[in-house]
Amino acid sequence: MADLNALAADLASGAVEVIDLTSPLESSTPILELPPEFGQTWHFELEEISKYDDRGPAWYWNNIRTGEHTGTHFDAPVHWITGRDLDDVSRVPVRNLIGPAMVIDKTAEADKNPDYLLDVEDILQWERENGALQDGGWLVYRTGWSSRGDDPVAFANADESGPHTPGLTPAAARYLAESTNILGLGVETVGTDAGAAFGLEPPFPCHTMVLGANKYGLTQLRNVDRLPRTGALLIAAPLPIVNGSGSPCRVLALVAR
Ligand code: 23J
Ligand code: MN
Questions:
Q1: HSE of 191 in the Cβ direction (CA atoms, 13 Å)?
Q2: Residues near 21 by beta carbon (within 8 Å), at least 6 away in sequence
Q3: Which residue's alpha carbon is at the smallest distance from atom 8 of ligand 1?
Q4: What is the rounded end-to-end Cα distance, in angstroms, of the chain?
Q5: Among 47, 48, 133, 210, which one is least packed by beta carbons within 10 Å?
Q6: Residue among 33, 69, 82 whose CB has most ligand 1 atoms within 8 A, to mutate
Q7: Per residue in 6-39, pLDDT tens?
């Protein structure tokens, strides 16, 4: 039988560290802005109900207003039309919310080229160095983009032609979807697709193929520089929003020290 007491002791001693991969959720948290002809998601907002005052003398609480895809969040398969018959976020099996993290570091490439697209060869090279992408694992695409996370303008990195943030080639998205059994893809950017992914063929290849293959997305991750390339355990905790397409999500990693 597995020994969870040993894990608890390792957590208590610091032999296993808990790293928060979640961006703080506040009204200034960057969100995706689509072209104006499309519907838009909301910023996260707090509305105070009471704060130890006339409205509630001994208690402080808020109502919240948010998009499902605001801040660090989970993309369920049903988010995309290719996954329309697959799980909504409340139906994602909880077994699929925890798995090993496999980190592919393209920080240098994204520094040089904000439109960098991870390609199949990048993944194959990672697999030659680290072994095949593990079944039931999360591929974490490290780009350094979270260093811009407190500056919505730098985070979106938009010009006349739209946002410029790193993503995947259609071939890489197809490879992850069809040739691996990973749980999904985690990224530091506002979405799993590149800022310029509307112009790819198909548009939004990662959403199209990865969600269509019953895999998941995790976005706006922080602190991925604190993860080993392999060996960390990632825990994603989206809210069970019934019929939801996704959810703001706390994402934690367990790392052996
Ligand atoms: C809707 C349309 C396009 C995109 C997205 C949402 C996301 O990135 C998202 O948060 O799922 S690219
Ligand atoms: Mn999303």
A1: 27
A2: 72, 186, 221, 222, 223, 224, 234, 251, 252, 253
A3: 191
A4: 24
A5: 47
A6: 69
A7: 999 999 999 999 999 999 999 999 999 999 999 9
